[in-house]
Each structure stands twice: as structure tokens, then as C-alpha cells.
Design a protein that fits this description.
3-stranded mixed sheet; about 35% helix; globular; CBS-domain; alpha/beta; 7 helices
């Protein structure tokens, strides 16, 4: 199986993209992150759901005390109150280093092996410096689940 057979096309994150737009695109494509591209469409980093939510919604003291937190936390309701501010903010501040990538000519097995080696659930597909899409563990499993199944 070739990477192109399991590729998910997505938008890219760019300077000025709001967290709301970022969340919507990740939800639409069922992916945990997007490449961050400059005006020339070159990948200069990545933005992930985990990083945006961690830094946008989760105070560090809550992370440190997670193991002793009770079920009812009234101060976490603040997350909902601050959601509008987060959603209107740009993803620029959440940009991280570029992510693992592979070419579209690669095999899905290589993509899976690279994801396992780097302990990640997704890999960007880049040909000659141009972003093509993302391959996720979920997408690979979905395609494999259909092998040998009778047509619907």
C-alpha cells in the first residue's frame, strides 16, 4: 500500500489563522495537527491540538495536581468562560518545530514504522518541499479494516 492511498488532504496553518479555524480543520480531517506554513507555502513548523489546548486552556498547576484532582472542579468551568478568547486568538503563538514527514511515493509500512519510531500518531506527506496531506494511524486502520470486506 502506498502513502497516497491513505493520504488525508488538509489545509495548512498560517500566520493569522484563528484557533477556531484550526480546530474546525483538524475536526474535519480527523487529524491531531497541521503543518504551519509561511507565505511561500514552505513548512516552518506545526500546530497541534494538544499544544493549543494545553497552553490555551490548562493551567500548569492543574497538570501538576492531576493525580489528586476530584471529579468536581468548579474552577475548570473557567475553561468554558475563556473559550471565546482562545478561539479568537491566532495559532501563531502555538507554533512548534516542524513534524516528521515522508514523501507520497513511500509505502504505508514505512510511514507506520516512522510513526512508531517517533511515538506519534501522524506524519505529514511532503513532496519537493510542498505539503500534500497527512497520514494518521486512524486512517491506516480504517483503510485496512476494509480489506477483504464485501462491498457495501
Amino acid at each position: 500500500m502506498n502513502v497516497e492511498q491513505v493520504l488525508i488532504s488538509t489545509k495548512v496553518a498560517k500566520s493569522g489563522m484563528t484557533a477556531r479555524e484550526f480546530f474546525e480543520e483538524c475536526d474535519r480531517a480527523n487529524t491531531p495537527g497541521l503543518p504551519f506554513c509561511d507565505a511561500g507555502e514552505q513548512i516552518t513548523g506545526r500546530v497541534t491540538l494538544k499544544n493549543v489546548l494545553k497552553h490555551g486552556c490548562l493551567p500548569e498547576y492543574v497538570v501538576e495536581m492531576a493525580h489528586v484532582l476530584g471529579e468536581q472542579l468548579s474552577n475548570l468551568q473557567d475553561m468554558e468562560a475563556e473559550a471565546e478568547q482562545l478561539l479568537d486568538s491566532t495559532v501563531d503563538q502555538y507554533k512548534q518545530e516542524p513534524h516528521l514527514s515522508i514523501t507520497s511515493a513511500s509505502s504505508a509500512v514505512k510511514a507506520l514504522a516512522m510513526m512508531e519510531r517517533e511515538d506519534t500518531s501522524y506524519i505529514f506527506v511532503v513532496d519537493e518541499g510542498r505539503y500534500k496531506g497527512v497520514v494518521t494511524i486512524h486512517r491506516l486502520a480504517s483503510v485496512l479494516a476494509r480489506y477483504g470486506a464485501p462491498p457495501p
